[in-house]
Amino acid sequence: EKGGYEHFMMKEIHEQPKAVEDTLNSIIKDNQIVLDLEGLDISNLSQIHFVACGSAWHVSMACQYIFEDLTHIPVRVELASEFRYRNPLLSKKDLVIVISQSGETADSLAALRLAKEKGIPTLAIVNVLGSSIAREADYVLYTLAGPEISVATTKAYSAQLVLGYVLAIYFGKEKGLLEEEKVRYYLSELNTLPKKIERVLEDKERLQWFASKYSNAKDVFFIGRGIDYAISLEGSLKLKEISYIHSEAYAAGELKHGAISLIEDGTLLIGVCTQSQLYEKTISNMVECKSRGAYLMAVAPYGYYQIEDTANFTTYIPRIDEHFIGSLAVIPLQLLAYYLSVSKGLDVDKPRNLAKSVTVE
Ligand code: F6R
């Protein structure tokens, strides 16, 4: 049942190329995006509210940057557990997008119902067919990740991300912001993702080796800017939930407003450096931490070799259009969390205190 892998999580990590490919194939036919959103007035949307919990909230954070860039629609990203108790300001021209693997998360479902009560159009991105959120939303788009057993999500997260990308491209096109040629370019870039994820997975032994050195780490920091910040949030959650190592994700520039006081000799700091407009800024934050004793790991695209002047250990990922590179940057972070959990002898697939589906608030 684990397909030769020791844990479901590792099996599911390796199923990511397929989860991404199947999800893309379900909504891209003959180089055209095919989505059933009949009746949704995309060109007049005034705001998009992404509402989710946990990793699905991290997907929403990544989507924020991509949607605003490709659609020029203002985006808010909301934790479902906050949104539902806040009497949120919503207009009939808004769209509420709920992202959920299980489709049963209590807070996400309550947030969806709240939006519906107020007469706001709702769209759900869900993995489990016929789940409550899928049934109740006005529009549903399914991730085709297949059943996910491991409590820590990997392949559903990756499938949610690509659905988000395609939706952003579609909205941008419907609003007349993206020409045919640009759409074709984005779709052809997206089609390279499955192979490139496989390529990242080939480097797993290096991460296993690195994890074996760091299994006694007490605190780990993840930093990045823009999409890299969204990926840092996910890397940090993966690590803490399955390896029980305390970790924090910070928008790189925010570190010096408090948390940098926690950096001491040997603290592991992981910089996600994939965005060409931003990575030099993140590197300068990494340098500041190194001078305070931090040990630096970097995730960067092939070709950014100057990062080795700063980082002690670098994992390279293939290049792709920068909107989509988070899908590659997250893979080494999943692997690192996995190997740290294994090297500590923990129950990778069923971490303590956690449930796969959080159906109570
Ligand atoms: C983390 C994880 C959780 C879920 C969260 C939402 O690895 O799996 O943070 O992302 O509980 O669950 P769904 O997506 O089912 O609504």
UniProtKB/TrEMBL annotation:
Which residues carry out catalysis? K356 (for fru-6p isomerization activity)
* Entry keyword Cytoplasm: yes
Q: Which reaction does it catalyse?
A: D-fructose 6-phosphate + L-glutamine = D-glucosamine 6-phosphate + L-glutamate
Q: Does the keyword Repeat apply?
A: yes
Q: What is its EC number?
A: 2.6.1.16
Q: Where is the SIS domain?
A: 33-177, 210-351
> Keyword annotations for this protein?
Aminotransferase, Cytoplasm, Glutamine amidotransferase, Repeat, Transferase
GO MF term (any one):
glutamine-fructose-6-phosphate transaminase (isomerizing) activity
Any one GO CC term of the record: cytosol
Subcellular location(s): the record lists: Cytoplasm
Biological-process GO terms, alphabetical: carbohydrate metabolic process; fructose 6-phosphate metabolic process; protein N-linked glycosylation; UDP-N-acetylglucosamine metabolic process
- Record's subunit section: Homodimer.
Task: Describe the task this protein carries out.
Answer: Catalyzes the first step in hexosamine metabolism, converting fructose-6P into glucosamine-6P using glutamine as a nitrogen source.
Name used for this protein in its record: Glutamine--fructose-6-phosphate aminotransferase [isomerizing]
Organism encoding this protein = Floccifex porci
